[in-house]
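Methods — Computational structure assignment.
A single polypeptide chain was analysed. Its primary sequence is given first, followed by the predicted tertiary structure written as structure tokens.
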Amino acid sequence: MEAHEKGVAMKRKLFEYGGIAASCVLICIGAGAIGLGAWGINEVRDNLAQENIVGTPDSSIPGQKVDTGSEARAFATTMRHHALEATDGRTYAEMGRFVDPQGKETNDEAAAAKDPKTGQPVANGARNIWVTETALAGALNMAFLGERVALFGIVMGAALLLTGIGFLVLTLGGAVQHAPSVRETVRRTEPATS
């Protein structure tokens, strides 16, 4: 009978050590995720601040320095509005690739005006506005996304940290205790013999 009880006690200890190890892993991963998330937010904000972008008077952030992901997204929206104004409300795909000798758009390379130096068709300059806008707005929107991903990392890290702490409290506090077996209960209730 003692061998069985030793086996049960050994299993209980094994589960206890396993619970402590799992708790420690969760706590470490949670703390690491919080740290990386905070670093990510700071990195995004530092990189945006370096660009010295200031909201235009017609933006939702007039005169304000763009140094957060939300401000970057707001400014990207303003840039799109400006690009649409400059191209009469048309996007890149809605414009011709070239201009003809009269300055009208065309996709026909043969009908396009030719550059006197290179002999190549003259590109539609208005389309280049969209190339620039797409590159810059894409970078600003990536800053917004980067900040949101970092924030998600912080939230998940906090959840893992709290879960690890909770498991550790349960494991060390013995909240999940082994219920006494029928034999242990009978032994405790039997009268002692002399």
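Note: The first strand starts at residue 98 and ends at 99.
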